[in-house]
Amino acid sequence: MKKVCVTGATGLLGTNVIIKLLQNGYSVIALVRKKSGWLGEENENLKLMEADLSSDLSLLLKDVDCIIHIAAETRQNLIRYEEYRKVNYETTVNLFTCAESAGVKKFLFVSTANTLGYGNTAFRGNEKAPQLYPFTHSLYAQSKLEAEDYLLKNCNNTDIIIVNPTFMIGAYDSKPSSGKIIFWTWKKKLVFYPKGGKNFVHVEDAANGILNAVEYGKTDEKYLLANENLSYKEFFEKVNRITNQNPIMIAIPNRALSFLGLIGDGLRKLNVKTNLSSSNMKALQICNYYSNQKSIKELSVQYQSVDKAIEDAVQYFIENKKH
């Protein structure tokens, strides 16, 4: 039985990945801040361990075959790059250094699609496309790209595989995190939506993509875990149809978003935490679209519809009284 170590085990993706690993016969060490944060069931092949990812974990990793590093700082309201770098870069470097010294064979790093160049309705961004604005100005995306570059340049004895998921929707979104986008339109009579769009993927498919990458992924390669390219209007219309709603939909002018971005830039200069920034508001105005052909061809990922992802997320929110 292969032993896998997973970080970020209590988040949306981490929970789904561990459930899939256990279903497929893996033995899992899950590194968590608090054991009480685990949302899945107990399992004899799952060991929850409270650990500081910036500490020396070499002994803990001695018999581990693969590390799946998911833990990350994803909040969009932090002001300084160092706040992202400390978690997304320095922790990754430390964990990888420990993996090398412990003789771990594979290190799978979960990054983000926003380290890669996006496309539009005519052309889809892919694994070879260089990062583009506004994500070149996203502190989060930059910290992830710095970690990617380090891993690819410094791998010696441990195989490096990088996966780049797009926007994930599905069950076990306890905070909620990305699922907040569903609440943007759910049970609303009036919905204001930006004119841009993004790529959406069922979190289960992203989890399956990670498992397949552990088995079939090539060293030093990146894999986009992506599915449907949708405008925000199209996505909200899906949510409305699935939840039997018919709100009034009003497009937000790009100029209004740009103005909000400038206000956010000013607040950040005053050390005020805010999700508003020029780069974040620009991201809502573009078609942030990607291709999944490489993951289908090389990892044999079979993607479910975004409708199913929304249904599963909504059902989870209802059952856990998150709505």
Brief rundown of the structure:
With 323 residues, the chain is of the alpha/beta class.
Q: How does this model look, in words?
A:
- It holds the Pfam family Epimerase.
- Residues 4-223 form the NAD-dependent epimerase/dehydratase domain.
- One of its GO terms (molecular function) is aldehyde dehydrogenase (NAD+) activity.
- Keywords: Plasmid.
- This is NAD-dependent epimerase/dehydratase family protein.
- By secondary structure, this protein is α/β, with parallel strands linked by helices.
- It has one domain (3-319): 3-Layer(aba) Sandwich (Rossmann fold).
- The chain is 38% helix and 19% strand.
- It has helices spanning 12-23, 81-102, 139-154, 180-183, 203-216, 232-242, 254-269, 278-283, 293-299, 306-319; strands spanning 3-7, 27-32, 46-50, 66-69, 106-110, 159-165, 167-169, 190-193, 197-202, 221-225, 228-231, 248-251, 287-288.
- The strands form 3 sheets. It has a 7-stranded parallel sheet with strand order 3-2-1-4-5-6-10, with helices on both faces.
- Helix 2 links the parallel strand 4 (66-69) and strand 5 (106-110).
- The radius of gyration is 19 Å and the shape is globular.
- The N and C termini lie far apart (40 Å).
What attributes characterize this protein structure?
single chain, 323 residues, Rossmann fold, 7-stranded parallel β-sheet, 38% helix, globular, aldehyde dehydrogenase (NAD+) activity
Average pLDDT score: 95
List the secondary-structure elements in sequence, H or E.
Answer: EHEEEHEHEEHEEHEEHEHHEHH
Question: What share of the residues does DSSP label as strand, in percent?
Answer: 15-25%
Please count the helical segments: 10
Specify the biggest β-sheet: 7 strands, parallel
Could you name the ranges where pLDDT drops below 50 across 5 or more consecutive residues? none
Any idea what the CATH superfamily is called? NAD(P)-binding Rossmann-like Domain
Total number of domains: 1
Could you estimate the helical fraction of the residues in percent? 25-40%
CATH class identity: Alpha Beta
Predict the CATH topology. Answer: Rossmann fold
**How large is the radius of gyration?**
19 Å
Going by CATH, the architecture would be 3-Layer(aba) Sandwich
Q: How would the global form be characterised?
A: globular
